């Protein structure tokens, strides 16, 4: 790959100095996953919170992870569970509680997590590319942090 092409790709994935969101990626690369983590960490710092943050690809495989100072060991494992659940099912863990209540058998299906904080990651032109899971605060705070991370990387939590 030519140096100029490589530089353009790196520039397209980087968050600009003025804080604008990244260009939408086609897959959950390490750079994209790190941008999600950094967006989550920035949100957490702004709100004086500490989270564990996991980013996975579309198959639920860990791509990036961060456990902030003050986040518990339990939050560390839970963030990964939330990310994998959202990657596998393609929707937010906050919506899985309703599914578990209204759909016979869903509650005991593999990878179901019924606590907010897991969001699927969709790229506008590529569909679902993975997910982010956040744990360490109230479920609504976990989900808000996950959403901030996706937005920082130019991703959405739904199609």
Task: Explain what the structure shows.
The structure is a single chain. The protein has 159 residues and is of the alpha+beta class. The chain has a single domain, classed as Beta-Lactamase (2-Layer Sandwich). Helix content is 42%, strand content 17%. The chain is built from five helices and four strands, in the order ααββααββα. The protein has helices at 3-13, 30-46, 73-89, 96-102, 139-152, and strands at residues 52-57, 62-67, 118-123, 127-135. α2 crosses α5. The chain is globular. It starts with a helix and ends in a 7-residue tail after the last helix.
CATH topology group: Beta-Lactamase
Largest sheet: 4 strands, antiparallel
Determine the fraction of residues in helical runs and give it as a percent range: 40-55%
Number of DSSP strand runs: 4
Radius of gyration: 15 Å
CATH superfamily: Haem-degrading domain
List the total number of helices. 5
Question: For the terminal residues, how far apart are their CA atoms?
Answer: 32 Å
Residue runs with pLDDT of under 50 for 5 or more positions: 1-21
What's the architecture, going by CATH? Answer: 2-Layer Sandwich
> How many domains make up the 3D coordinates?
1
Order of helices and strands: HHEEHHEEH
- Helix/strand class: alpha+beta
Please state roughly what percent of the residues sit in beta strands, choosing from under 5%, 5-15%, 15-25%, 25-35%, 35-45% or over 45%. 15-25%
Q: Could you report the average pLDDT, rounded to the nearest whole number?
A: 87
The spatial strand order of the largest sheet comes to 2-1-4-3
The CATH first-level class comes to Alpha Beta
